[in-house]
């Protein structure tokens, strides 16, 4: 993965200088900046690495698109926690299912919104529920996984009661997500902090946010990338296919440089 270093010293010093009518920063201000940038943490983010002060926290999520036309499908991937035990994972899932079931679908004789709960393995559980209080057969699907100690959730939507392909897609993707021992070892794929996704999809749209404790400072990173086409150049396909999402705002997944921020 490519390395991206964020140099906060120049940014902070420039801000301080501007706020002080172009005065040089004080020794205390220089010391604070040095303290902030001395202890850094490397995050695996998207298809690269980013260095941030060790006390910053944050994360993000990614939506993977399969197909670029009107008949596309998509799956959203989120990391809900790290250092999660099996007991905490089971308790969180039970609470999630209980809360969904407590909501009633008043368009269908007040039946619970929760349709089914399937345990696909001791560390995986699949939830299906009505996406809205309606008679339409539109369902939300969530696959909750415990990968080592990382709590990961995959989510997707099925329409007109056609649930089998969506569940199959979630289960397939679950086998393509791996825990990362260290950011530098993430290797090929799309990284979300402690995990890396190695699936074959056509587009990935992700957003990340990081901030220091007790501060209004916020660093946001946005990624939007399309994979190359096997038959024709991406530029040609973009002009031809009017169904492509955000066609003028993309990066290449596997060819050329990837800009993270």
The 3D shape can be described as elongated
Adjacency order of strands in the biggest sheet = 8-9-10-11-5-4-15-16-17
Binned strand content: 35-45%
Mean pLDDT: 82
N-to-C SSE series? EHHEEEEHEEEEEEHEEEEEHE
Oligomer class: single chain
Specify the structural class.
alpha+beta
User: Unreliable segments (pLDDT under 50, ≥5 consecutive)?
Assistant: 6-14, 241-252, 254-261
- Over the alpha carbons, how many angstroms does the gyration radius reach? 22 Å
Tell me about the largest β-sheet: 9 strands, mixed
Specify the number of helices: 5
Estimate the helix proportion, in percent: 10-25%
Span between N and C termini?
15 Å
How many strand elements?
17
Kindly describe this structure.
This protein is an alpha+beta fold and 261 residues long. It has 5 helices and 17 strands. The strands form 3 sheets. It has a 9-stranded mixed β-sheet with strand order 8-9-10-11-5-4-15-16-17, with helices on both faces. A 6-stranded mixed β-sheet has the order 1-3-2-13-14-12. The chain has a domain of 106 residues. The chain is elongated. Helix 1 packs antiparallel against helix 2. The C terminus is likely disordered. This is Lipoprotein.
